[in-house]
Specification:
There is one protein chain. With 102 residues, this protein is mainly alpha-helical. The chain is elongated, with a radius of gyration of 27 Å. It starts with 7 loop residues before the first helix and ends in a 6-residue tail after the last helix.
Length: 102
């Protein structure tokens, strides 16, 4: 297939290129708008990193969110940056108390 300067294919190709250029311009505008919202939130005392995480979490499916939380907990526990995994968490106080007589 050859694409010449004044052929139907070149017109079709140019239409695709122009659409992509418009989409990229719109994306740049949206990115600038999002940055402005983040700056406003930060000025009100909110953490942009926490907001980004909340947006990411809200977009996740419940199962994916649960798996992510479990993986995060496991990794943080492995490097000593988090409390013990809930799987191994138990009530030590309850197990050491003598049973009450009735």
């Amino acid at each position: 297939m050859t694409i010449g300067h004044n052929t139907i294919k070149s017109d079709e190709l140019m239409a695709f290129i122009e659409r992509i250029e418009r989409l990229r311009a719109e994306k740049a505008d949206l990115t600038a708008d999002e940055k402005q919202v983040m700056l406003e939130a930060q000025a009100k005392g909110f953490s942009p990193a926490a907001i980004r995480l909340c947006v990411k979490v809200r977009a996740m499916e419940p199962d994916a969110w649960s798996e992510w939380r479990q993986t995060r907990a496991m990794y943080l526990h492995a490097i000593g940056k988090d409390s013990p995994l809930p799987l191994f968490d138990h009530d030590t106080e309850a197990s050491t108390e003598p049973a009450k007589k009735t």
